[in-house]
């Protein structure tokens, strides 16, 4: 099933890598840790559809762990292996991607602090808003508890990206695609909470002025 182009690109280097893996002996366990299917439909209906299947496996040997990625492409009845990647790892994915503080960088701690402080700030601001005499209080509360923009932080790798067109309730969230995947921490900018704290005194003065009874001119 190996595609000739892949075989030519892999060559002796790929075979040597494969032999290094096989030298560990029979695998103790062989687990499927990920799979994905992508369909390509050409505009020309006379051409066949193409389906690519991306498979990821975790192999446990007596003294080694390996992640194997395989891409299988099928057009009609023909199936071809379009890509193979073998990556030795120091431990199982469950261990490498678990949530802990061991060996983390200063940026990890900085993001974790931001991740915790955002919802705390929002909830504290809600309490302040409830105790303040301001107009449209419930609209302000809705504005306060929603974070804008979204930072997504990969706890295992330290990679971080930002999505500007996103909202996040209470400004935080946690996501993990599966038991083998890394933890993703999500955090947002508490624009509503910051705006209310800055404008609070002005809003209170405006609410107090609107409740004053105008003098009778008669």
SSE inventory with pairings:
Layout: H1 4-22, E1 29-40, E2 50-60, E3 65-75, E4 78-89, H2 93-96, H3 106-130, H4 137-144, E5 146-154, E6 160-169, E7 172-175, E8 184-189, H5 191-211
Antiparallel strand pairs: 1-2, 2-3, 3-4, 5-6, 5-8, 7-8
Helix pairs in contact: 3-4, 3-5, 4-5
- For the termini, the CA-CA separation is 98 Å
| Computed Rg | 28 Å
Biggest pleated sheet: 4 strands, antiparallel
Which class best fits the helix and strand makeup? Answer: alpha+beta
Kindly describe this structure.
The protein contains 5 helices and 8 strands, in the order H-E-E-E-E-H-H-H-E-E-E-E-H. It folds into 2 domains: 4-96, Nuclear Transport Factor 2, Chain: A; 106-210, no CATH class. The radius of gyration is 28 Å and the shape is elongated. With 218 residues, the chain is α+β, with helices and mostly antiparallel strands. A 4-stranded antiparallel sheet has the order 1-2-3-4.
Short summary:
The chain has 218 residues and is an alpha+beta fold.
Q: Which terms would index this structure?
A:
Nuclear Transport Factor 2, Chain: A; 35% helix; 218 residues; alpha+beta
């Amino acid at each position: 099933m190996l595609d000739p182009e892949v075989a030519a690109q892999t060559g002796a280097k790929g075979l040597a890598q494969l032999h290094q893996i096989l030298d560990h002996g029979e695998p103790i366990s062989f687990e499927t840790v990920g799979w994905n299917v992508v369909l390509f439909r050409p505009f020309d209906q006379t051409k066949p559809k193409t389906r690519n299947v991306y498979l990821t496996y975790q192999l446990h040997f007596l003294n080694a762990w390996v992640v194997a990625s395989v891409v299988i492409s099928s057009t009609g009845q023909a199936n071809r292996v379009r890509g193979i990647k073998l990556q030795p790892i120091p431990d199982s994915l469950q261990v490498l991607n678990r949530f802990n503080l061991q060996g983390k960088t200063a940026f990890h701690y900085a993001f974790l602090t931001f991740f915790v402080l955002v919802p705390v700030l929002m909830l504290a601001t809600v309490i302040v808003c409830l105790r303040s005499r301001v107009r449209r209080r419930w609209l302000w509360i809705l504005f306060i508890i929603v974070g804008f923009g979204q930072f997504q932080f990969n706890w295992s790798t330290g990679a971080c990206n930002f999505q500007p067109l996103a909202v996040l309730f209470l400004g935080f969230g946690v996501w993990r695609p599966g038991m083998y995947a890394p933890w993703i921490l999500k955090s947002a900018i508490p624009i509503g909470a910051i705006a209310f704290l800055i404008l609070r005194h002005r809003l209170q003065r405006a609410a107090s002025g609107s409740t004053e009874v105008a003098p009778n001119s008669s």
